[in-house]
Give the backbone structure.
Amino acid sequence: MKLYKRILPLWLCIIAFCCLGNSTFAQSNEVKNANSYYSQDKFEEAAIAYEKILKDFGASAQIYYNLGNAYYKTGKYEFAILNYERALKLNTDEDVQYNLKLANMQCVDNIEPVPQVFYQKWWQQLMQQSNADVSAAWMIAALFGFSILLLLFLMLQKPMIKRICFFSAGALLVFAALQYTLANRQNAYMQNNKAAILMKVSDYVKSSPDTKSANLFMLHAGTKVTVLDSLNGWHKIKIANGHVGWIDSKAIEII
């Protein structure tokens, strides 16, 4: 019985390792097949293969990027934009940003954003590109350093070293507080600013969530919007120039 108890955890680990290995191997083969389609200029087949990889194995910045490229080659620019944006949510890569810019140039709508003061631009870019988990990690590291310095301050006797430890600990505490604030703001930003891409060729934005309400303006495929609210199959959206209205939820895809 004792031998069984010792061997069982080992067997479970071996089984888990084998399952993980098989999954990784299967994903690698799927990626090779999709890449092969792409290299042979079979872009529609490549797109289908990349979509299957995402469905079977979950989100991946690289696969979203490859899928965006495949859709770009087929002329489905709204799908390319959607997948480039999804790739950027996972990894702010320069190649993805460049290809996204090219795809956006193919869109009909060229909406000028509302002018912002320099610090507003800086803050918005920080919110979009930073990661709340990274800020939280920096906060924990700063608190750990603060604890060490505080301990040294209490233990050591030399006034000069105690003074250095005291002010350094204070600086780390302030840094930790800033990272905590930043992590909270980033988390709130991600929760409250759901971006989406218009997938229909064109659609009217309404004054209220009703098909009979007045048409405010028209948007075309590939346009990025911010979802502010949802009601009965409609989304309240805002576009880059600040205009707000309601659109059929089926017309857009959340990034």
